[in-house]
Amino acid sequence: MLERQVRIFASSGQPDEEGWAESIIGNIIKPVIAKFGDRIPLFWFSRYAILMPDREEPTEEELNDIGDCAFWKIPKECRVPGKFHRSIRFRFSVENNSKKQVEDFIVYKVASSTACISGIIEYSSLVDLGGDRFAGPSCQDTRGRSILVFKYLNSICRLVLDYLYKNRDIYKIEENDQLNLNPDKTAFQSLHHLLCNITGVPTFVPCSIDSGAANITIGVTTLSIAKISSNPGVVYRVPVQF
């Protein structure tokens, strides 16, 4: 069994910010799993939005984000300086004799869309999911931990594919009208709530007081604060315990 990764960049031709990731997932990843699901036992994907500098040369911090692809070969429409570049990292295990067929199909689906990739590379779930981030000093079996984390992420991503539907050529996550439990109309709020209940881990809400102003900005991540605040100040992490 092989493990592979491809980073799929959204272009300026993708749907608005609220739907760009669902567009990539629905148009590229979902068909791959539908066609080769029996040969891809585990997979997971996640979305990223990174602020691009208004220059060509990356800093060391930026290099940490772009080391898994030939970033500067990505067309400029997918990495507009001064704006966010948006991407989905798709990691998957695949049977050895199906690698070429699966990867050729991924390349075909990307070429049929407005997204961009620079290639498909090796991936190690042991390094990524069995390292210090997910396995503390008391962990006796990092390989076993990496497999458990991989299966956990895989289950979430399979749920995303199940909740995903197409409406007038735009992919969206199924809405849920139980607003007392899912105020943003998505059942993933209940799933997130249960994760916090099961683990006891609080949800941290970043808050920032804008420099030179009395405004308080609240975001889900420090990135979202940067997106909605023109002059963010010190960011405070306020825990919300379930």
Detail the topology: elements first, then pairings.
Layout: E1 2-9, H1 20-36, E2 43-51, H2 60-66, E3 84-94, H3 99-111, E4 120-122, H4 125-129, H5 142-163, E5 164-167, E6 170-173, H6 188-199, E7 203-209, E8 216-218, H7 222-228, E9 235-240
Structure description:
The chain has 242 residues and is α+β, with helices and mostly antiparallel strands. The chain has two domains: 2-173, Alpha-Beta Plaits; 203-240, no CATH class. The chain is 34% helix and 23% strand. It contains seven helices and nine strands; from the N terminus they run βαβαβαβααββαββαβ. It has helices at 20-36, 60-66, 99-111, 125-129, 142-163, 188-199, 222-228, and strands at residues 2-9, 43-51, 84-94, 120-122, 164-167, 170-173, 203-209, 216-218, 235-240. The strands form three sheets. A four-stranded antiparallel beta sheet has the order 2-3-1-4. A three-stranded antiparallel beta sheet has the order 8-7-9, covered by helices on one side. It has a two-stranded antiparallel sheet with strand order 5-6. The longest helix has 22 residues, at 142-163. The chain is globular, with a radius of gyration of 19 Å. The termini are far apart.
